[in-house]
Amino acid sequence: MGYVKASLLVGEETLRSPTCKAVCLFTLALLITSTIFTSIAIPAQQSSISLEDVKLTKGLADRLGPFSPIEESLELGVSWARVKGDQAIIEISKGVYDFSELDLEVSTYQALGGNVLITIFPKNREKPSDVEAYKQFVKALVERYDGDGYEDSPLLKYPVKYWEVMNEPDIQFSTAWMPAMFKGPPEDYVDVLKATYEAIKEADPEAKVVIAAPSIINPWAPPDTLEFWEEVMEHGAGSYFDVGNVHFITGTESEYSEDTDFDVSYYKELLSSHGVEEKPLVITELQLGATESGEEKQARALVKGCVRAFAEGVEFIMYVEIKALEPSTKLPEELIRSFLIDLSGRRRPVFYAFKTMTALIGDFQSVVKLSEGC
Ligand SMILES: [Ca+2]
Question: Taking a C-beta distance cutoff of 8 angstroms, is the pair 217, 184 a contact?
Fold first, then answer.
């Protein structure tokens, strides 16, 4: 493995946009690894694998997702996939688990070099009435994919080490295209987080527990959204996750600037204001909407925002959707405007910006902020 120290000027160098200012916006030194990727086929029933081994496995040094749809993902050079570990689907009767669908999903991504984060959902998307039974489910789930050779999926190629505890639990209402994410007050979510954390660590002490992200975390967020997360932190959530989590969801280019860090700074303030120690961060949902006239800005903001987020300590970022994966009639206009490939199949500038970014910085090992100007 060799290392190349490179300096990246984010802006006109990357996107060649005629509207970019000629001056430096954000200069970062990136240590880009030139790792020789070798496919490490690990028989599922052999010796245990450490977290460090995972990072050396094919494709796992990459920092971007999603890994779906597969063909476009391979072209874009992304590697992170996010799949559901849903108790309602897996626990077919009390204490009886059917992992067949998830086994296949995980192994498909892994076979192509993808890294997998699994989002855990308790049955009914609420605090379980039987917490111990829920913990047994979580332990069985983690044991299935931890790669320690004990009760592993026979299809497992390398371990799953990142586990997200539900999704945007502050969304407690359903819409035509989106179910309620959680039913219950903030303290109930903390109870789910605690139970999940304890079960995960019992099954695999090396695993990383990722807290659910707020649906919105900025000064424009609805007051009840911010209050939900204030209360989550006040109820001691900080002791029950290893990795913080941010979502940045926008509908048009008017909702973000090219100076964005995808709300990472607001999230850090949320944690620090409640005495939560600094933690690594991930962005499990990024959505940059743009009208046709805003597509250039969308492309620039993607690259600049990703670099700024990485500089703030974000480990990996997953874009919400590369293209429509279901009939567009079901989807809101805001989401459609964020696709890298539009409904006619046209690749928007943001698609090429994404592809260029993964080629240039997809495998960086560390990032250091040198200066910030303009
Ligand atoms: Ca195992």
Answer: no
Residue 287's closest CA among 314, 254, 250, 257? 250
What does the pLDDT read at residue 201? Answer: 98
- Distance (angstroms) between ligand 1 centre and the Cα of 41 equals 16
Report d(CA 147, CA 150) in Å as an integer. 8
142 CA from centroid of ligand 1 (Å): 7
What amino acid occupies position 239?
S
Instruction: Name the band, by pLDDT with cuts 50, 70 and 90, for residue 361.
Output: confident
List own/partner pairs for 94-100 with CB under 8 A and 24 or more apart.
Answer: 94/133, 95/133, 95/136, 97/137, 97/140, 97/141, 99/141, 99/144, 99/153
Question: 148 CA distance to ligand 1 centroid (A)?
Answer: 5
The answer to whether 307 and 367 are in contact (CB under 8 A) is yes
**Omega of the bond leading into 69 within 30 degrees of 0 (cis):** yes
Distance 159 CA to ligand 1 centre (A): 9
Q: How far is the CA of 316 from the centre of ligand 1 (A)?
A: 25
| 123 or 50, higher pLDDT | 123
CA 260 to chain centre: 18
Cα-to-centroid distance, 111 and ligand 1 (Å): 19
Q: Tell me: the pLDDT tens digits for 106-119?
A: 998 888 878 899 99
Per residue in 8-25, pLDDT (tens digit) is: 323 333 333 333 332 233
